[in-house]
Protein backbone atom coordinates (compact mmCIF):
# COMPACT_ATOMS: atom_id res chain seq x y z
CA UNK A 1 0.00 0.00 0.00
CA UNK A 2 1.27 3.49 -0.87
CA UNK A 3 0.53 6.58 1.20
CA UNK A 4 -0.25 10.04 -0.14
CA UNK A 5 3.02 11.42 -1.43
CA UNK A 6 2.42 14.75 0.36
CA UNK A 7 0.69 14.18 3.71
CA UNK A 8 1.67 10.48 3.95
CA UNK A 9 -1.87 9.45 5.01
CA UNK A 10 -3.28 6.12 3.98
CA UNK A 11 -6.83 6.60 2.81
CA UNK A 12 -9.53 4.30 4.18
CA UNK A 13 -13.22 3.82 3.52
CA UNK A 14 -14.94 2.14 6.45
CA UNK A 15 -12.82 -0.94 7.11
CA UNK A 16 -11.34 -1.14 3.61
CA UNK A 17 -8.16 0.73 2.81
CA UNK A 18 -7.81 2.37 -0.59
CA UNK A 19 -4.50 1.81 -2.31
CA UNK A 20 -2.75 4.72 -3.97
CA UNK A 21 -0.35 4.34 -6.84
CA UNK A 22 3.09 5.88 -6.58
CA UNK A 23 2.76 9.66 -6.84
CA UNK A 24 -0.97 9.82 -6.04
CA UNK A 25 -2.56 12.25 -3.63
CA UNK A 26 -5.27 11.64 -1.07
CA UNK A 27 -7.08 14.90 -1.85
CA UNK A 28 -6.69 17.92 -4.10
CA UNK A 29 -5.09 20.06 -1.39
CA UNK A 30 -2.23 17.60 -1.22
CA UNK A 31 -1.80 17.82 -4.99
CA UNK A 32 -1.53 21.61 -4.83
CA UNK A 33 1.03 21.28 -2.03
CA UNK A 34 3.21 19.01 -4.19
CA UNK A 35 5.91 20.24 -6.59
CA UNK A 36 3.74 19.33 -9.57
CA UNK A 37 0.72 21.13 -8.11
CA UNK A 38 2.67 24.28 -7.26
CA UNK A 39 4.26 24.22 -10.71
CA UNK A 40 0.85 23.81 -12.36
CA UNK A 41 -0.54 26.79 -10.43
CA UNK A 42 2.43 28.92 -11.50
CA UNK A 43 1.97 27.76 -15.12
CA UNK A 44 -1.69 28.78 -15.15
CA UNK A 45 -0.83 32.15 -13.59
CA UNK A 46 1.95 32.69 -16.14
CA UNK A 47 -0.39 31.88 -19.06
CA UNK A 48 -2.92 34.40 -17.78
CA UNK A 49 -0.24 37.05 -17.37
CA UNK A 50 1.11 36.34 -20.89
CA UNK A 51 -2.37 36.59 -22.39
CA UNK A 52 -2.74 39.97 -20.70
CA UNK A 53 0.66 41.12 -22.05
CA UNK A 54 2.22 41.17 -18.60
CA UNK A 55 5.21 39.23 -19.86
CA UNK A 56 7.76 40.33 -17.26
CA UNK A 57 5.50 39.01 -14.51
CA UNK A 58 4.74 35.89 -16.56
CA UNK A 59 8.46 35.21 -16.90
CA UNK A 60 8.90 35.34 -13.12
CA UNK A 61 6.09 32.81 -12.64
CA UNK A 62 7.53 30.50 -15.31
CA UNK A 63 11.00 30.69 -13.79
CA UNK A 64 9.63 29.77 -10.34
CA UNK A 65 7.76 26.81 -11.86
CA UNK A 66 10.85 25.63 -13.76
CA UNK A 67 12.74 25.46 -10.47
CA UNK A 68 10.13 22.95 -9.28
CA UNK A 69 9.75 21.00 -12.55
CA UNK A 70 12.70 21.87 -14.83
CA UNK A 71 11.86 19.36 -17.56
CA UNK A 72 8.20 20.36 -17.99
CA UNK A 73 7.46 20.73 -21.72
CA UNK A 74 4.55 23.15 -21.18
CA UNK A 75 6.75 25.45 -19.11
CA UNK A 76 9.63 25.31 -21.61
CA UNK A 77 7.24 26.19 -24.44
CA UNK A 78 5.62 29.01 -22.47
CA UNK A 79 8.99 30.44 -21.46
CA UNK A 80 10.01 30.48 -25.13
CA UNK A 81 6.81 32.29 -26.06
CA UNK A 82 7.15 34.84 -23.26
CA UNK A 83 10.81 35.51 -24.10
CA UNK A 84 9.85 35.98 -27.75
CA UNK A 85 7.20 38.50 -26.69
CA UNK A 86 9.87 40.33 -24.67
CA UNK A 87 12.15 40.50 -27.73
CA UNK A 88 14.72 38.09 -26.24
CA UNK A 89 15.04 36.02 -29.40
CA UNK A 90 18.18 34.02 -28.65
CA UNK A 91 16.87 32.91 -25.26
CA UNK A 92 13.46 32.19 -26.78
CA UNK A 93 15.11 30.01 -29.41
CA UNK A 94 17.02 28.09 -26.74
CA UNK A 95 13.85 27.26 -24.76
CA UNK A 96 11.79 26.54 -27.89
CA UNK A 97 14.42 24.02 -29.02
CA UNK A 98 14.29 22.34 -25.58
CA UNK A 99 10.48 22.19 -25.78
CA UNK A 100 10.67 20.85 -29.36
CA UNK A 101 13.08 18.10 -28.30
CA UNK A 102 10.87 17.20 -25.33
CA UNK A 103 7.72 17.20 -27.51
CA UNK A 104 9.31 14.85 -30.05
CA UNK A 105 10.60 12.60 -27.27
CA UNK A 106 7.09 12.26 -25.85
CA UNK A 107 5.03 12.11 -29.07
CA UNK A 108 7.52 11.26 -31.80
CA UNK A 109 8.75 13.26 -34.78
CA UNK A 110 6.00 14.50 -37.06
CA UNK A 111 3.20 13.54 -34.66
CA UNK A 112 1.05 16.65 -35.09
CA UNK A 113 1.36 16.78 -38.88
CA UNK A 114 0.57 13.05 -39.12
CA UNK A 115 -2.49 13.46 -36.88
CA UNK A 116 -3.71 16.38 -38.97
CA UNK A 117 -3.22 14.35 -42.17
CA UNK A 118 -5.24 11.52 -40.63
CA UNK A 119 -8.09 13.85 -39.72
CA UNK A 120 -8.14 15.44 -43.17
CA UNK A 121 -8.19 12.02 -44.87
CA UNK A 122 -10.91 10.77 -42.53
CA UNK A 123 -8.76 8.05 -40.94
CA UNK A 124 -9.46 9.60 -37.55
CA UNK A 125 -12.27 11.89 -36.50
CA UNK A 126 -12.09 15.68 -36.63
CA UNK A 127 -12.92 15.37 -32.95
CA UNK A 128 -9.22 14.64 -32.33
CA UNK A 129 -8.37 18.23 -33.32
CA UNK A 130 -11.12 19.61 -31.10
CA UNK A 131 -9.97 17.58 -28.10
CA UNK A 132 -6.28 18.25 -28.67
CA UNK A 133 -6.25 21.81 -30.03
CA UNK A 134 -4.04 22.91 -27.12
CA UNK A 135 -1.40 20.36 -28.18
CA UNK A 136 -1.55 21.47 -31.82
CA UNK A 137 -1.30 25.13 -30.78
CA UNK A 138 1.58 24.47 -28.38
CA UNK A 139 3.51 22.67 -31.10
CA UNK A 140 2.69 25.45 -33.56
CA UNK A 141 3.96 28.05 -31.08
CA UNK A 142 7.14 26.06 -30.51
CA UNK A 143 8.04 25.75 -34.19
CA UNK A 144 7.01 29.35 -34.90
CA UNK A 145 9.32 30.54 -32.12
CA UNK A 146 12.16 28.43 -33.49
CA UNK A 147 11.68 29.69 -37.06
CA UNK A 148 11.40 33.27 -35.84
CA UNK A 149 14.49 32.87 -33.68
CA UNK A 150 16.59 31.47 -36.52
CA UNK A 151 15.47 34.17 -38.93
CA UNK A 152 16.13 36.85 -36.31
CA UNK A 153 19.74 35.66 -35.85
CA UNK A 154 20.09 35.40 -39.64
CA UNK A 155 20.29 31.61 -39.84
CA UNK A 156 17.73 31.59 -42.63
CA UNK A 157 18.42 28.07 -43.92
CA UNK A 158 17.75 26.65 -40.44
CA UNK A 159 14.44 28.53 -40.24
CA UNK A 160 13.08 27.09 -43.51
CA UNK A 161 12.14 23.55 -42.34
CA UNK A 162 10.36 24.97 -39.31
CA UNK A 163 8.42 27.43 -41.45
CA UNK A 164 7.45 24.60 -43.81
CA UNK A 165 6.27 22.56 -40.79
CA UNK A 166 4.33 25.56 -39.50
CA UNK A 167 2.56 25.88 -42.87
CA UNK A 168 1.56 22.21 -42.72
CA UNK A 169 -0.26 23.01 -39.49
CA UNK A 170 -1.53 26.47 -40.41
CA UNK A 171 -1.66 26.45 -44.24
CA UNK A 172 -3.26 29.92 -44.47
CA UNK A 173 -0.79 31.70 -42.18
CA UNK A 174 0.33 34.65 -44.32
CA UNK A 175 3.07 35.64 -41.89
CA UNK A 176 4.64 32.17 -42.10
CA UNK A 177 4.32 32.20 -45.92
CA UNK A 178 6.01 35.60 -46.13
CA UNK A 179 8.74 34.55 -43.72
CA UNK A 180 9.35 31.37 -45.70
CA UNK A 181 9.79 33.31 -48.95
CA UNK A 182 12.03 35.83 -47.18
CA UNK A 183 14.22 33.10 -45.64
CA UNK A 184 14.45 31.21 -48.93
CA UNK A 185 15.63 34.37 -50.73
CA UNK A 186 18.13 35.21 -48.00
CA UNK A 187 19.53 31.67 -47.84
CA UNK A 188 20.04 31.61 -51.64
CA UNK A 189 21.81 34.95 -51.65
CA UNK A 190 24.51 33.78 -49.22
Quick take:
With 190 residues, this protein is mostly helical. The protein has helices at 28-33, 35-51, 55-68, 73-85, 89-107, 111-121, 127-131, 133-152, 156-169, 174-189; strands at 12-13, 16-17. Helix 2 runs antiparallel to helix 3.
How would you describe what is shown here?
71% of the residues lie in helices and 2% in strands. By secondary structure, the chain is mainly alpha-helical. The chain has two domains: 1-33, no CATH class; 34-189, Serine Threonine Protein Phosphatase 5, Tetratricopeptide repeat (Alpha Horseshoe), CATH 1.25.40. It has a two-stranded antiparallel sheet with strand order 1-2. Helix 5 packs across helix 8 (133-152) and helix 9 packs antiparallel against helix 10. The longest helix is centred in the C-terminal third of the chain and has 20 residues, at 133-152.
List the helices and strands and how they pair.
Layout: E1 12-13, E2 16-17, H1 28-33, H2 35-51, H3 55-68, H4 73-85, H5 89-107, H6 111-121, H7 127-131, H8 133-152, H9 156-169, H10 174-189
Antiparallel strand pairs: 1-2
Helix pairs in contact: 2-3, 2-4, 3-4, 4-5, 4-8, 5-8, 8-9, 9-10
- The secondary-structure element order is EEHHHHHHHHHH
What's the shape?
Answer: globular
The appropriate CATH architecture of the largest domain is Alpha Horseshoe
Quick check: average pLDDT?
86
- CATH homologous superfamily classification of the largest domain: Tetratricopeptide repeat domain
- Strand residue percentage: under 5%
Give the oligomeric state of the chains in this entry, treating copies of one chain as homo and distinct chains as hetero: single chain
Stated plainly, the CATH topology of the largest domain is called Serine Threonine Protein Phosphatase 5, Tetratricopeptide repeat
In terms of structural class, how would the helical and strand content be classed? Answer: mainly alpha
Helix fraction, binned, reads over 70%
Tally of alpha and pi helices: 10
Number of strands: 2
Cα-atom radius of gyration: 20 Å
Terminal CA distance reads 65 Å
Name of the CATH class of the largest domain:
Mainly Alpha
Sheet having the most strands: 2 strands, antiparallel
Low-confidence stretches: 12-20
Amino acid sequence: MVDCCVCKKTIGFFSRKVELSQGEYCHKNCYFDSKQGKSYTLLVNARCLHINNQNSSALKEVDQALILTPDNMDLLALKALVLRSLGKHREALEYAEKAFTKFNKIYGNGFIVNQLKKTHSGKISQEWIIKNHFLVDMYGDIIATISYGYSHIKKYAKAIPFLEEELKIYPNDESAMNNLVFCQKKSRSK
